[in-house]
## 1
Amino acid sequence: MPCRNNIIHRRALFLLALWLAPTLVQAHTGSSGMNGWADGFNHPLHGWDHLLAMLAVGIWAAQLRGRTIWQLPLAFVGVMSLGGLAGVMGLSVPGAETMILFSVLVFGVLIVRKIRFRATVSLFIVGFFAFFHGYAHGQEMPASAGLVSFALGFMLATLLLHGAGILTARLVIFMAACFLGSSVHAREKDNAAVEANEAVIEAESKTRKKESVELDEIVVTERADSQIGIADSASQGNVGQAQLQYRPITRPAEVLETVPGLIATQHSGEGKANQYFLRGFNLDHGTDFLTQIEGVPVNQLSHSHGQGWTDTNFLIPELIETLEYKKGNYYAENGDFASTGSANIHYVRDLPRQLLKFTGGSFDYYRGLAAGSQKLGGGHLLYAGETVHNNGPWGVGNDYLKFNGLLRYSREATDRGWSLTGMATKADWRSTDQIARRAVDQGMIGRFGAIDPTDGGHSQRYSVTGEWHRRDDRSETRLMAYGIYSTLNLFSNFTFFLDNNEVNNPQGCRGLPSSPGEKMDPAIFNTCGDQFGQPDDRWTTGFKGSHTWFHKWGAIDSETTLGLQLRNDNIQNGLTKTHAQNQYAVTRQDTLWVTSLSPYAENKTQWNRWLRTSTGVRFDGFRFDVSQSNISQNTGERYDGLVSPKLGVVLGPWMETEFYLNGGLGYHSNDARGINTRIDPASGTAVDRASPLVRTYGAEIGLRSTWLKGLQSTLALWWLDLDSELVFVGDAGTTEASRPSRRYGLEFANYYSPADWITFDADVSVSRARFRDHEPGIGNHIPNSIETVIAAGTTLHNIHGGFFGGPRLRYFGPRSLDESGGRRSEATLLVSALLGYEVTQNLSFQAEVFNLLNRKDDGITYFYPSRLPGESLAGVDDFHFHPVEPISFRLGFTAKF
């Protein structure tokens, strides 16, 4: 009866929305020539998507009853006005039309299923979709219309549509009551209608109360673990395995993309370290972002390919317990490479069950993983083995083959514990590096083709780490020592035939085509081309120790930490000239020793209920020694050191909200070869030696709030200055001069769990990067400094008997590719998704799809000169890009026993 009639009416409305969906592309037809408020008033009425969504909000508000009947419409109109302002200002919001369509479907489901949330949750859902509706209105405002009058028009129309929705819901209830009354004797008609109406209202009220009680028991988990009272800044947080396991991941480095605002992409073969972007920095392969595994630094200094080389291909995502991130240079325990921030990855010490996993997919991809743990001698033995193969979509397949292993033994007592960990990784690959866009436009190669088909590399990494810790009520002590042996042989060609051509090497290059666009014989690269090799062989050893005292200053709680860090790198690397990976000349070859000693002190004090501080100071002393070089003038030994103070102030919490003020000094270390180079190895001319350590200055204002139940939001306004962008370019074997710079930006990160089976995350980062000095005729843009990053996703788990997964969106916007700012890259937008089903606790299956929209974006873009056959010897300035992979699929299973 009435309930069934309600269901029939609501299902009809939902089906109507679906039937009208194909027409939505015609919803926004632009101006009709009318001016002012009339134009704005008509806009929502001419689009079926707007019309249905507005009615649905009203119907849902009526279902929820109480104060929400007016709160939801007002919240929608309020947030919609902000979206309209964003549209008028021309702000780029990707996927707005898709989100408008999605809102119709979401509101339809909420109405049909009579889904009810707490008021704050309902307001969030309505406000989220309202922004996109308002954005569409603002984008399509006619040039002749006034902003205020146009906004008043579409706000008034929206409120009227909400009211129509509320009225529709009321009429449905009234008609149901009348229908029931018609089956009763005429003398009882009025009373029966009233009683039926009251029965409907009472039933809905009971249902709502029951569901509200259930929602009150929601437990927030994963990244939304409250950092209130713990974190020292707004840009500090943790990511747990619960978030990682339901995330589609194409390569291990994407684990770092859980750090809000960080992008990990690739411009070469899969075995090479990834390219990273964060806070307006092109971090290259890791410079200025410190990555650690159990406190052991992954960044390699004075590396043959570039300072800070961060190869994370040895990571096994399933073994990660937590990832701690701290952005900014405000933390005393972090020194080298940490100007933009740091991430410390911790592995589990044992697994509840043995794990066997296999995944196969597009482009000859397969991955096998076996992992488990056993109790042994009072402790736990953790072990894991992994193999990966991937060809990719490239014309010259990657043929990437990796073997990865881990062995850890750990023991824990009541107040102390220790562990010993060994890791081993070996990988080989061929690569398609970035290619010139004109080579594709001329038909010389396809989008996934290679200009030099002989690029590639192979690498190895072996490490041993020992760790001991103790904690009681008065103090905590941590000691750790590590040793790493790693090798890399990398072969690349970015300029093709600019340096080694038919003039500079006439005998080797006779087979070159004489005109642009002509096909090339791959055999040419056996004797020609600009390929270079970058061998790197090193031993890295280090020690970290810290002791913390828990004490009081009167009634004030405080803790003081003293720490010491040592690191030594013994390196042999070089830059060679090669054809098809066969060496024929040496540009430079060096033996290096780099040693650092870094004591630090930090105090954290809780002065009262609403004020706590963190103060620290750190000294970093370095010895840079080039003991051998193929150019004797480039040997030498230099020392340098810096003192870096840190400060953090936390105010609150008030209403589950804290406010942060942070500042600190840090540094950017330079390559030991550039520090001691007096003769340019390529040109033979005299050059000035680079500064060993370059000062960085950082500050941040932020807030963190968990006031809305289930939602954790952080907002940070940050600033970072560098005295110089000076870097050593491994591809050229010399230091690239640069200028002082300034970067600042805004980060807004959100993680929301309205129920224990669903989570939403949405992070937005915007930044501006400029050189601080003035160079007439050159410009002050910092090339490849990322400006906008948006990452968002939904995670579902344990629903309908075992389904899990969800979609993810990643967007990084256009950026300047040269100092003038005139050459810019295109934006990159990728949508991926994972869907899995847990058959039993011991067996699950999952499917992943990457680049779901099959977009033809660039993974990375550069602008520089290169030369193709038949072109001018001076080369051609052009865009060089590495494309994102096309849509691809992976299927797999996980067995536990």
## 2
Amino acid sequence: MKHLAIAASCLAVLFATPSSAQNDPVVIRADLTKTTGDMKPVWAWFGYDEPNYTYMKDGKKLLSELAALSPVPVYVRAHNLLTTGDGTAALKWGSTNAYTEDAQGNPVYNWRITDSIFDTYVQRGMKPLAQFGFMPEALSSKPQPYRHYWKPGNPYNEIYTGWAYPPNDYKKWGALVYEWVKHCVARYGKKEVESWYWELWNEPNISYWKGTVQEFCKLYDYTADAVKRALPTARLGGPDATGPSWDVAAKFLKTFIQHCTSDTNYVTGKIGTPLDFIAFHAKGAPRVVDGHVRMGISNQLRDISDGFKLVASIAAVKNLPIVIGESDPEGCAACGMATNPENAYRNGTMYSSYTAASFARKYLLADHFGVNFLGAVSWSFEFENQPWFYGFRDLATNGVDKPVLNVFRMFGMMKGKRVAVTGNRMMPLMSIRDSGVRKPATDIGGLAASNKKSATMMVWNYHDDDLAGQPEQVQVVMEGVSAKKVTVTQYVVDKHHSNSYEVWKQMGSPQQPTPEQIAQLEKAGQLEQASVERNVVVQDGKLTVPITIERQGVVLLKVEW
């Protein structure tokens, strides 16, 4: 009977229509006796285009903060780890000069910059999701022009230069892969490198790859052969195609999986190629409507849903881990709101509440399709020496944390097992996937977890439209609490808490803040503990906590006994 009750609860989350009108009392319930799965840290994955930011001042600071907020090692994915150049950082660009050739065409390997990047991760207990990409200039079949100088507002296709082409020699490419993995094993140790994930390229179904799908499969075969020769226990996957809700992306993903499972390997001549995990991307689609930003959370959730469904439908791979290699509200981290006004959501709490609401649904979609969901990479880092709060998709600006980073700090406190959550104003999974949050009522939802001595509940008040609204009074109910008295701590991200952006605006939006102002902004960028109540009485296993939550606000309740 217990299993039937849990199944009924899950169906309610998927399909039920919220019964409450907008003005009715809002109630969110978590039943600690009904576990739905592990509270896997799928959120503890981050990525960015510009690898040379890694070891710069603010890059190191942010990586230290990401490492500190997570109870498990954080995985980091970066582009341009094999791109040719002098290591100068620029928007949507980076380089390591790992591979060049001498006058006779012999390979010259230089791991100085790649080591600096991976050293920065490993020193903080982080792990690379190490990307083989992009094509070194000396190996590109069409190298010129190679270096691009894109800036926000320019056509996006300017970035696709010589680094995007297939190699002029697949064996030399394989040798490069082999030497890099072998070097990493020598530098960091076999056990450490075994804990990493390796992948080939990025979004090869669009202009990031200027070859055919079969040429990409050939490149993957040479890559896999080299990786496994250097370290047979290494984990390699792909293809990191764009969102599977695109027909062209779904077709690419299917072709790649078919090649790895049943086609002839270009290197070995045998059937199949090692594939240890599957990766694809998922993006939302914000736009400006009637003078305000309207998010497209349903676009991102459909990408995830279609990707999970596709993997689950193929028997040979349905149990493989899945990494959503980029999982974001839209597609261009380096496009600021000055040139792309639809990205104005990024500085404030719209980004925070979207992150809370979307990650909760990622868990539910994985449950629904029964897939092995490993991680979702937030393609959001930081940009060195850029204007304050320029509206990049980043976690911090000039070393000051944005509100969205505090949602990840909240996730870092959630441990144990996920438990069933229901709410009379929480949008059902399939409704928000198909239609977003466009009705007058907001999505007031929750994600909860519990272990032997504590429970946590994240509550958000999300709407696709970035418009002002009245705060909501919410009754948070936890059932099945195994204690008579508890301590309840409340953390808040909203206009008045954990919000450096609002403090910066109150200062007059200075582009050259004083040291005193910077110190104030850094403090405002931390997660704020709004209240703590000790010896709160639990009646018959039920704890009721009233909270007030602003529109686009996020609250975390931590209950300890």
## 3
Amino acid sequence: MVLLGILLLPFQKMVPQVSLQNTTCEMLVNPMGIDVMKPRFAWHIISAERNVMQTAYQILVSSTPEKLNANEGDLWDSGKINENASIQVAYNGKELTSRLRCYWKVKVWTNNGQSEWSANNSFTMGLLYYKDWPKGWIGFDRAFPWDNTKTDSRLSARYYRKEFQSAKQIKYATASIIGLGLYELYINGKKVGNDVLSPTPTDYTKNVKYNTYDVTEYIKSGKNAVGAILGNGRFFAMRQNEKPYKIKTFGFPKMLMNINIVYTDGTTANIDTDDSWKGTTDGPIRTNNEYDGEEYDATKEFPGWNSIGFDDSKWLKAEFVQEPSGVIEAQMNENIKVMNTLKPISIKKLSSGRFILDMGQNMVGWLQIKVKGSKGKQIKLRFAESLKEDGELFTANLRNAKCTDLYTLKGNEQETWEPTFVYRGFRYVELSGYSYQPSVNDLIGKMIYDNIKTVGTFETSDALTNQIFKNAWWGIAGNYKGIPIDCPQRNERQPWLGDRGAVAFGESFVFDNGRFYTKWLQDIRNSQKEDGAIPDVAPAFWRYYSDNMTWPGTMLLITEMVYNQTGDVNVVKDNYPAMKKWLSYMKDRYMKDYILTKDSYGDWCMPPVTIEAGRGKSADKKYPSELISTAYYYHFTQLMIQFSKVTGKNGDAKEFEILGNKIAAAFHQKYYNEKGYYATNVLTDNIIPLYFKMVPEKQVDKVFKNIAYTVEVTNKGHLSNGLVGIQWLMRCLNDYGRPDLAYTVATKKTYPSWGYMIENGATTIWELWNGNTADPKMNSQNHVMMLGDLLTWYYENLAGIKAASPGFKKIIMKPEMIVGLDYVNASYQSAYGMIKSNWKKSTKQFNWAITVPPNTTAVVYLPANEGDVVAEQTIKDLKLIKNENGRAVYEIGSGDYSFIVKKK
């Protein structure tokens, strides 16, 4: 029996399994407000049979549910398409128009039969043309007496409202809003949607994103009221006067909105932003600053301000203001939401009526409080990641970020409050201003990050490995903020490119981050200068254009990741011109005799030789390396060869091949020592050329022996890499025959290691290997950059789940058998469906349960030597390819398999 799960793909992947019996399909992207003229479709085939492969499909897209139910695809009837594509299938029907509601379904043919039609689905087009928007942005382009724009960027929130009449019976209604920097939208007193900190941040001089909501259920016949609050976000920049040459700001908060109502008689009405709206800045949110916090004065609340009948006679007339210069675009990546809640594990009393709250986990978000007290009483909340030895908050690593919320009570019996436009990274909270002992039951930690699904699970027989994975999850999730920020706590929180180089690849096995990173690639493209330069931070909220290979080159690494993990070739096409232009820029300016002479960071944040050697010392030191920059340029030529072929630019592929060969030859001649190492035999300097396949074949063994000796003997089983080298360490050790050594590195508990962080209380991943002794000014306790390729190695080599072709159409399943690791249970929700690898071994037997999704195939490598007995539930379905290095290699189709290998 063949069942279907379906999804519309405005950008790329992916879909949860939804059976035919369900009447709705859970969408991972809000299907409202799409501005892609050829949206892409995907579906999962769900079957209990083995070896199911799609042979054809048919998609219907209709303008009404009735037409779709009658199988009339008046917008697009693809007809029967004899292809096996079930992801990235582009719409090819009539031209889609603004606000058009589209209804669609799909059926497929497979080698095992034909499905019925899937459940109906829908999506709605956004405002496709500039003329579709209202004529006026509204706002107040000035500060008010209680604001301060000279030092700490204290700016109160802006409140706006309007009442309108809806006289007819409503068929449906949508609201499209751009609220900069951040907004909350209300209709008739109810918040629209459950997003927070929306919209996603961009360089607002390049593009601004809008969100669209279905508000049919919010609007009633007769009089209605719409209200919005605007916060500062990245638009009205923090610390903008601190370093104006560095920090980019965009102006005062402003808004553009359209509510479109379609009545049952076919007529329409629009409620737009204009100067008929009323506004005030003298509300309860007195300031909201991402670094410093939010101050909320409940005595200044105006109940009912977002409902009908509110007296706004003392409010100001909304003013027309200049629009931002960026292009208006629909937001196709997920908004931020409250994704988890945590109850504190303890609360302890300090001196002077203060209390320390312990959440038990370094988290990102805010604290909701329930409090009682007299009117005007103030509750102060100060946040930090750790405590000093005396039990007080440790705030030195926050730099000058105040990370403080202030709540002024209105004097009710019990008041509940949480901030609206700020967040922070914290485990501990200092509470003050209470006249009584607060209870943990009155406090809730709310974890926020982009509404990105967790698509990977991973568990092993090793408790430390499991804890490292858990720490990684918390760190990665917490640093998703519409952009991949480096850290969530100090006065930085910037989208540094270098931090996410190869880390994003490992992230993709855990989170459905394809849309997130596709959006970020657009941010990087938008930040590129006319001459080709790409910054180290994008969007370029901080103006850093230092010219190096490793930070800007992240654009190529992320493009490769999204393409390989999701099968989205458009991500290559979209970014190809920018990548080629940047490589040309760097070559023309800095390449001499095929050596790239410009670097900025070297192997950033290499661990000090001992934990004591780094005590109190700043890690903010740069050691530029021409070896690293040249090796990376070579690696990028190899990626561009792949990208050129994918996009049909075969002439470019040949040019990059010639250039790469010349770079490799010059590199080897300059840096290779006949003793089998490069430069001064630093670990990273050897790993990079070997993993990038720059080393001539006859020297490969020598170089790898030096790598293994450095790790095993010199480092006593420890790593010694910074941000650059750690991106390739685990896979290099594994691919050249030492997965056991990789496992040794991954499970160390002594310095420097991931386990050392945990032994010293970490619940996320530190910025520095010596994060407990380094100068606190650069000492984040929640960074992801030092994960390197660890998660990639977990999934590809410990679990044995690896894409053999883009999107996991073909899968390689080859788990490493390592002494000390007895089992691995892992799963990954790929673009085609769920992949599972659950194995367990003993001295006499190996058991392996595998799931391969329909419409894919896998090559599996069973650990079996000659004489071992290989058994499976239905051996007739298996195709033995070969025996190789102690492995029996089979090619299998979709389905669930249970292998048993009995050792002789």
